[in-house]
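Q: What changes when zinc ion is included in the input?
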Amino acid sequence: MTPEAALLRVIHCLDRARESGFKTKAFVRALDVVRSTSLDEIERRATRSTLTDLDGIGSSTAAVIADAVAGRYPAYLAKIEAESGVPITAGGQIYRDALRGDCHVHSTWSDGGAPIEAMAATAMSVGHEYMVQTDHSARLTIAHGLNEERLAQQLDQIEAINQQFADAGDDFRILSGMEVDILEDGSLDLCDEMLSRLDVVVASVHSKLRMERGQMTERMLAAVTSPHVDILGHCTGRMIGKRPPSDFDADAVFAACADSHTAVEINCRPERLDPPRELLRRAVELGCWFTIDTDAHATGHLEWQPLGCDRAAECEVPVERILNALPVDDLLAWTRRPR
Ligand SMILES: [Zn+2]
Ligand SMILES: [Zn+2]
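A: The predicted holo structure follows.
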């Protein structure tokens, strides 16, 4: 294991454990230092125990680097790996076993912490056959949302990476997509031409979450009935303990989703777990389709699917109604069917 690989793996485990504070920052900083220093120097310093003389390397990060240089599996990494696994119930495991992909994934193109290649490598390592690259749309400036020009560049990059997978004989595909903002009037933050170029479109509300119920219902209805929209992302916008769910007529919105073949996302992020149980049960009763997506902003987050799988089991979501349990060609056929 190279020092870089060891540090990346520690960061992955800290992210999956929702460790967002100083520990992660220290390892990200150390990673930067290792990347900008020659391997020779790192090895020399590791042998002489002078790694901590480098600005940005502390005692914990130095220990991981020194272990890797000496050819030992880093002790700290082994510890954090053991502690950070994401548990799953027996019921949830049935859903997890059925999943073949993840339809909501961010990268450094918007507000994610890892490049597309790293997200894809991790998606492969957790057993996926595909992931949908869904960075934010332009209106979400705080998250460096992509305008049409940058999205077009991203589509070229996705095509190139897919070609590399094909050349290497990897049975994995990145599908193109976007998490498009649902604007206040229910229109989408991307032009029709680009929307129709994408394999999968997730539409989410990120602004004016406290809009009056009737208006919010109209806004969401307009979006979920758009022929371009495949998935309604984190429908209530809640942040557990921080932000209450938006107020809208869930029956009307879910019925429209079922009618127009727009899947309701079961968002796995621990602070979201959206929709809440009672709404998820209602969506099941109304015959909706679903996805179980991580909304990952780091490689470690791609391991959060158990949280949504447990939810799906608890609320008795029919497995055959879960889009990302479909093989990739069936998923694409589903998103292209006339609505
Ligand atoms: Zn979102
Ligand atoms: Zn997202």
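Observations recorded in class: Residues 104, 106, 179, 295 surround zinc ion (ligand 2) (CB under 6 Å).
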